[in-house]
Input
Amino acid sequence: EESRVLICSVCKAGNQPGSGIESHFRRRHGAKGAVLQRIWERAATAPATAGGLADPQTAETPADGTSPVPEL
Output
């Protein structure tokens, strides 16, 4: 099963789905215009096969005992 939590590759923060993605990249990293649009489009299409993005505050950990990803 794919991970469904969006993690910022710059600061490693978990991002809330929806407007939380835009807010994070706009406020924390100063993204705007075409850059912000590309981030938004990528976030919208990445989890399409996994059922959508999960909230990092409430996302369940894998039941199969999979270890956390060290970089996260």
Q: What stands out?
A: The mean pLDDT is 80. The first strand starts at residue 6 and ends at 7.
